[in-house]
Amino acid sequence: MPYSLPKFGKMIPTLSVITAAHDRIRPHIHHTPTLTCQTLNRISGADIYFKCENFQKIGAFKARGGVNAVLSLTPEELQNGVTTHSSGNHAQALAYAAGLVGIKAYIVMPRTAPQVKKDAVRGYGAEVIECEPTLEARESTVEQVIAEHGATMIHPFNDYNVIAGQATATKELIEDHGLFDIIMAPVGGGGLLSGTALSAHYLSPKTDIIAAEPEGAADAVLSFKTGHIEKAPYIDTIADGLLTNLGLKTLEIIRLHVKDILLVSDPEIIEAMRLIWERMKIIIEPSCAVPFAALLRNKERFAGKKVGIILTGGNVDLGKLPF
């Protein structure tokens, strides 16, 4: 990265680091519920526990990592505010976290990001700076913000304190419901998946971690195989929250502790999303449905298994539902 990252969180988070992160953020987040659905169990053939981060502060798991990262900064790093680039949920998380400590947040968002997410970021008091929808444009705009304001960069996923915060969702899931055969999460930049894998590694080491990714943003599955940061062959998916490539930190953890990454099509994502809306009566966004879609596509692999699925968020534009 061309910009300087804060000098904290230099090691892969240990269990004690994840526990400290959980204690740090606990007053500022929800201990989200875990829901089951007998109809979806019957359809899938698995015993599924849905960890509902769609009920989290800011409507997504990202609140965990954003709050932990901001509360881990030194007074000097907080002095000129914080900045990041994000298509939505990390943007809201950082805006929310900055508000907790009374500092300015400068959020770089692609102009194509859902309007509902831009409005939410502004609603938390942050300044939104729009850019073209490319990684290069996002990073160069963040560089300009840092040069102008001296803000501290909080990367959306390639940051160990963000990863430690995201790990607390699976920590809660295991502490609440015991050991699992499999825990699933979607993968974009890999912050949640890394944290999920670490918590399971420490607390339920026999659990397989299986990720899911859209066919129209299939970079993580390639990176997982080669050990290098790869780009997707093409980008075309409804799961707008999963368009980012992995980072070096997340790739290392994923290759150490993740069993497999499964691909799903957009029609499969939409069908899984609709099933959860209709049968569980809860709002989830398309990216959130990707793991359940992967389970339905590979039923034989999950048959009879106790499966945890992180429902990552519910920040969907209700005016643009795919069904």
Automatic annotation (TrEMBL):
Keyword Isomerase: yes
GO biological process: D-serine biosynthetic process
Gene3D superfamilies tied to this protein: 3.40.50.1100
Cofactor: pyridoxal 5'-phosphate
Example of a GO MF term: serine racemase activity
E.C. designation(s): 5.1.1.18
SUPFAM superfamilies documented for this protein: Tryptophan synthase beta subunit-like PLP-dependent enzymes
Pfam families: PALP
Enzyme class at the top of the EC tree: isomerase
Keyword rRNA-binding: no
Signal sequence coordinates: none
UniProt KW keywords: Isomerase, Lyase, Pyridoxal phosphate
Tryptophan synthase beta chain-like PALP domain span: 25-313
CDD domains: Thr-dehyd (cd01562)
PANTHER family per UniProt: SERINE / THREONINE RACEMASE FAMILY MEMBER, SERINE RACEMASE
Similarity comment text for this entry: Belongs to the serine/threonine dehydratase family.
Protein name: Serine racemase
Species of the source: Runella slithyformis (strain ATCC 29530 / DSM 19594 / LMG 11500 / NCIMB 11436 / LSU 4)
